[in-house]
């Protein structure tokens, strides 16, 4: 490529590096001696959202392989042009019944589900209000919608009410957007109170349960199930890529919502359908997650959370270890990596500037010994 092209991009990379914000892809375990302890031990991975370890369950792998053999590696076209997507349709029916909603629709990713759904629901005459710590996919969807966008301080319902009081009367529709478990802080939204508030202002609500699925609720359906809020939230967003151990995202809700998304959600209409192996694996993972095996794994995860969280078992598996300055977070993560622990530094723009952190996510396959090792290493860093 031209020198001018490379120089222009190179300058941007240098600026990122100077600000301590340059990202690069992690090396595979063992490469260059990193990620190994005395050249032997593999990574201890504290970065995965595979909370119940289902991505490696033999039944999930077998279902994925079967779909590969019988349906091929790719779906071949968008769902609207896919006559034999019965695996995807079956998965949707099961997701809908798990979430106790009329219907569900699967997208190629959770990001696509979030970013594609919001612009279908609100437009230029409407209001969309987001929690300040909402995931990038929700922010991008809200921006793309062209609705008036307002942000309320994290989990601050007074802040949300102020916005609704001020803007609701001049908007055709209002949509409140939040996560039930926040991806970078791991805290839980006061959803009962938020739902009561949005009902008072006749607003709609979209809740992203990406990090609650598999972890909360009797059948692992999330915080909405745990709080018995089924039917009071217009749009439920989920992902197949975390506790469901596969890849893809979905929306669950009323039949009319799903039918409109089929017509209007651009990442659904214009993207190739979820690959059959991902759909097959997710279906098997869902069956496990809602069975006794899922309950056992959830209990095990609770024990691991309690061990790391000083006895608190009812919190989420995501623990931020705040480092503050960006360079400090990357230095701590690099030192841990040298000792075989993968706990990545999370920096701006994923989290606010100066709030860089290690993000520890715990899974049911971590052992008490591994948790104690992590704790000892973190103490050394203090
Ligand atoms: N929502 C939240 C809260 C997330 O954390 C993520 C994944 N980082 C997504 C949506 C996107 O899901 P996916 O990885 O399936 O695209």
Automatic annotation (TrEMBL):
The coenzyme or cofactor needed here is: pyridoxal 5'-phosphate
List UniProt keywords, sorted A-Z: Acyltransferase, Biotin biosynthesis, Pyridoxal phosphate, Transferase
Q: Which PANTHER family match?
A: 8-AMINO-7-OXONONANOATE SYNTHASE, CLASS II AMINOTRANSFERASE/8-AMINO-7-OXONONANOATE SYNTHASE
Q: In which pathway does it act?
A: Cofactor biosynthesis; biotin biosynthesis
Alphabetical list of InterPro entries matching this protein: Aminotrans_II_pyridoxalP_BS, Aminotransferase_I/II_large, AON_synthase_class-II, PyrdxlP-dep_Trfase, PyrdxlP-dep_Trfase_major, PyrdxlP-dep_Trfase_small
Instruction: Name the Gene Ontology molecular function terms of this record.
Output: 8-amino-7-oxononanoate synthase activity; pyridoxal phosphate binding
Q: How is this protein organized at the quaternary level?
A: Homodimer.
Q: Show the catalytic activity.
A: 6-carboxyhexanoyl-[ACP] + L-alanine + H(+) = (8S)-8-amino-7-oxononanoate + holo-[ACP] + CO2
**Keyword Acyltransferase on this protein?**
yes
* Record's keyword annotation contains Glycoprotein: no
**Coiled coil ranges:** none
Q: Point out the gene that encodes the protein.
A: bioF
The UniProt entry's sequence similarity note says: Belongs to the class-II pyridoxal-phosphate-dependent aminotransferase family. BioF subfamily.
Question: What are the EC numbers?
Answer: 2.3.1.47
- Identify which top EC class this enzyme belongs to: transferase
Q: Where is the Aminotransferase class I/classII large domain?
A: 42-373
Protein name from the UniProt record? 8-amino-7-oxononanoate synthase
